[in-house]
Design a protein that fits this description.
single chain; mainly alpha; 67% helix
Length: 102
Amino acid sequence: MKTKLQPDPEAITITKDQLWLMLLSTIRYSMGRRTYITAICKDLVYRFIQYLEPWQQKQIAEEIQKELDRAHKSNQLLGDQCDEDCWRDIVQFLMVKEKIHE
């Protein structure tokens, strides 16, 4: 007897455009914060990268790098060291992905 799979009651459907706006907004809001949110942003980028267009991936990397550079010009970090490390990891991850797509 076959068991019929039931839909996940917790699952929702969103479009790629909606995902893009939510992800970009989350990243922009989180830059400079000193909380767990930077690690969540890193996880979200890694988890949903396959749904983003190359130009969207590039935009995320550029925006994060711009804020890292701005913080460093003021002799500051983008959050605490652990936050800075998360942002750098995301930029590095996206730059590697971009080179693979070239």
